[in-house]
Every structure is written in structure tokens, then in C-alpha cells.
């Protein structure tokens, strides 16, 4: 979709177009409300600022749409398709790295109560494993802020891809 098309969609269609990027109603409504955008850069900046800060409820809702990193998203939803595309870019890693990432994912989930979320684009599985290990040492409040930042980055990248 092009920016001019997004700017001219009715409210419901514009909201539906945004939801696969981030299923947070306040974020979607904020982006729809600020139309028309003069440039994609302006839309992306609004996307970053509208998603700051997230509430705990918004983070939990958004996390429910993300599979464990390293696992293939199931289903035929737009969110699942985006996730599969993002994780496909990770490439192959040896079985040792995959097994260690699986363990780190499970340890993270046990510690924080939700999936480990990280922007996969531009990162290798080894880098993601290193980040998972680092973030396991975070206090819960610091980790919540990191999760929110990763959600923002993922949403902005998805939105940018939608408008490419």
C-alpha cells in the first residue's frame, strides 16, 4: 500500500491495515487519527511516539501475537505471515545454537511469564541468543521497558514494509 492510499482509506479500513503491525488499539487509533501524513517518515515518527509508553495490558496483548523466537508462527493471519517472514531472515544456525536459544527462551518465559521478544530483522540467531542471555539478568521493570522498545521497533519495521 502506498502512503497516499493509506491517507484516503476510511477509518475502519485504515485501522484494519495497521493492526498486523501492532495489535494495540490506542496505537492504531492514534495513527489513524493523525492522517493525512505528508511523508512516510512522518508516519513512522508518529508510530514511534504514539507507542511510548505502552501500558502493561497493551504489552501483554501485543505479546500474545508473537511466537517464541526461533519457532515458526502458526496460522494464516497477517501477523503470523509477518512473523514468519521476519524469522525466515534469521537463516540457518547450527543445532547447538538452536538448542541453546530454545533453553534461553524457556528460561526467559519461566522468569518473566511471557515469550522473549526481540526485533529479529538484522540479527543472527547467535546475536539473539546473546541478547536473551543478557536480558535474563534484567530486573522485571527494566525488562518490561526493553520489551516495549522491541515492540516499537517491530511495529515500525512492519509498518515501513507495508508502505514499501
TrEMBL record:
Disordered: annotated segments: 63-93
Family annotation (InterPro entries): OHCU_decarboxylase, OHCU_decarboxylase-2, OHCU_decarboxylase_sf
Pfam families in UniProt: OHCU_decarbox
Single GO term (MF): 2-oxo-4-hydroxy-4-carboxy-5-ureidoimidazoline decarboxylase activity
EC nos: 4.1.1.97
One GO term (biological process): purine nucleobase metabolic process
Keywords assigned: Decarboxylase, Lyase, Purine metabolism
All copies of domain Oxo-4-hydroxy-4-carboxy-5-ureidoimidazoline decarboxylase, residue ranges: 7-160
Record's catalysed reaction(s): 5-hydroxy-2-oxo-4-ureido-2,5-dihydro-1H-imidazole-5-carboxylate + H(+) = (S)-allantoin + CO2
Pathway: Purine metabolism; urate degradation; (S)-allantoin from urate: step 3/3
Name of the protein described by the UniProt record: 2-oxo-4-hydroxy-4-carboxy-5-ureidoimidazoline decarboxylase
